[in-house]
Amino acid sequence: MKNRKKWIDWYDKTGKRYVTPVILIFFFVVAFVLICQMVKPESYNVKLFEVAEKTIRSPQTIEDPEKTAEEQTKAAADVDDVYVFNRETAQNRESLISSLFAYVTEVNRDAAEKDAANKKAAEAANNATPAPTTLDEKLASLKSKLSKDASENITSALSNTVLTTLLQMTVKDLQAVEKEVISALDVAMDQSVRKDNLTDIKVGARDTIELSNLPTSYKGIAKTILSYAIVPNEVYSAQQTEDRRKEASANVVPVKILQGQVVVQEGQIIDREIYRQLDLLHLLDQKMPIKQYAGFALLLLSLAVMLYFFTNKQKSLDKPTKNQYMLVFSSVYIIVLLMLLIIRFLEGVYISNISFLFPAAFGPMIIKILLNEKFAFMMTIFTSVASFFVFQSDATAAVNITVPTYILLSGLASIVVLRDYSRRSAILLSGFIVGLANTAFVILLLLISNTGLLTLAFWGPVGYAFLGGVGSFVLGIGMIPLFETVFGMLTTSRLVELSNPNHPLLKKIMMKAPGTYHHSLMVANLAEACADAIGANSLLVRVGCFYHDIGKTLRPPYFVENQLQGINPHDRLTPEQSRDIIIAHTTDGAAILRENHFPQPIIDIALEHHGTTLVKYFYYKAKEENPDVKEANFRYPGPKPHTREIAIINIADSVEAAVRSCDAPTKEKIKAIVDSIIEDRIKDKQYVECDITFQEIEVVRATLCATLNGIYHQRIQYPAEDK
Prior knowledge:
Layout: H1 2-39, E1 56-57, E2 62-63, H2 65-77, E3 83-85, H3 87-124, H4 135-149, H5 154-157, H6 160-168, H7 171-189, H8 198-210, H9 216-229, E4 234-236, H10 238-250, E5 256-257, E6 262-264, H11 272-280, H12 290-312, H13 319-348, H14 362-370, H15 373-390, H16 397-417, H17 424-448, H18 456-487, H19 492-498, H20 504-512, H21 514-534, H22 538-547, H23 575-595, H24 600-608, H25 616-625, H26 644-660, H27 667-683, H28 694-711
Antiparallel strand pairs: 1-6, 2-5, 3-4
Helix pairs in contact: 1-12, 1-13, 2-10, 3-4, 3-7, 4-6, 7-8, 7-9, 8-9, 12-13, 13-14, 13-15, 14-15, 14-16, 14-18, 15-16, 16-17, 17-18, 20-21, 21-22, 21-26, 21-28, 22-24, 22-26, 23-24, 23-25, 26-27, 26-28, 27-28
């Protein structure tokens, strides 16, 4: 017993904080397992070099890295070497050849000047005329000049015979040879000269010399000099070549195995290449790459984060209710994923177009009834996202687009069509309408995909879609009681159960506080009419009114409707004591309802139906005794109404009490009372925390007046018998 008590104490103080996160994490893991189970590829028991027993198609579009690498290598190899053309090379070679002829001219001129000077000196001295400069001396001088000034050693490339012949030429012949060589060199070097075509360029240049007007004896010398002068003017660039090859490799479109592509035909031998592709598609091991597992985990995590922030933005919900909403939403989503798994299994046994039987409206319909319309839209989006990845593994691309689109449209239709869910017949009628809408959606989508009209592939999905729409609502009606029990949700059936007059708490009110019981029934009639008029939840309003004053059963005589024979206990109390008793009936009522495990919306009605209004009678009574009394001390603790339903009850409760206390209420008096109470509540800012609009308040005003006029209509005065 001690251990059990310790466990209960720990759970109440600490454990409750961890229950919701643990359950949500569990739902996340289950959703992840279900998604991965549905999207993982089908496996085949095939072996190398055996005959394929069936045609196997790719379940997804995937890149083939090996083939891509081969194409990239081939593209890089097809890129030619890059050579850089250098115009300065031609200019340098022309300058070199020009300097050669200039040096030859200079050597001859210097030799002539030297010989003339020596001869003149000898004549002046009456000496014998000295010998002229020899050819060998000229050759030595030329070589000396060439070796000093040239950027390369010409003397090693040109023989002594060539240089000697140049030295022996006349100035005119030397100029003619230079002109032809420079001209031919300019033509040759203006082309692209590389090592591989160097010989051909030289042959063409030599032919140009051969066809020139030079003396035959000088053509050989000119050809030799020209051949020496022609060098490659394009240099291989390793960096540019590598850059272009990288660019060509990068521009290669990745080789992909496309979704639906035939990998192996039935009866075909499974060679190494086919086996490699099957392994790449994970059709042999039923596994997905780690990155895909991580991707689906991040996808579900993103959806969970969106749900968390969306729920926390609902300011009208307290923290326990937000946790409850997230748990309900997650559990419904798990059920939706289980349904998707069943559909995938049926597709696996080759039931054609069975995916259109998926009850797409189930999730949004359940969520709209249990939570609200906003969460229903989110469920539709979440379901569509999951279906896109689930049906992405199909072979036919048209199905990949059609089915998720159909699921999205069907979910949205269920939210729009489902308006009255207080009666099962209304829910079933909505299911029938959604079924018809589903058939219209499928026909539209199949026409877009150009499916033949007079085929089973067209009308089969239409029938499945209708059954899926109706079946969604049938399943929903069956599942709602389960959610009511597990999560304590407030639904129509639960409200009907609570409205039973034989309910213990209603019998308690009737027995202990009959005046309060009658007051509650009257408020229920008024508030229900107002709720119907503005489209609020009228059943919730009616049932909430039955229990809104349950707190008065603790001290019935202290409330005027239960006082008999004009005895008022408040006459013996101070205004402060009376205030405490009156105000306590809201918190006492909420406590009683919590003890009896009532749904939170009913508890909220009991707690908030007076908002933070002023207990005017006892406030003014206290003010007579103490003018400095604070108004805030005589207000209900609240909170203020946070829903339209509670706002309606807030008005109807005060109006019923005020009209009942009025002598001979007429239309004018009723209208004045209703207007006064509503204006007072608006000025007191009692409805700033709920979503009721001024237009709806005006509708409530008119409905209350009409209903009360019907109740308190003028009656015929029957004469007494003696008259």
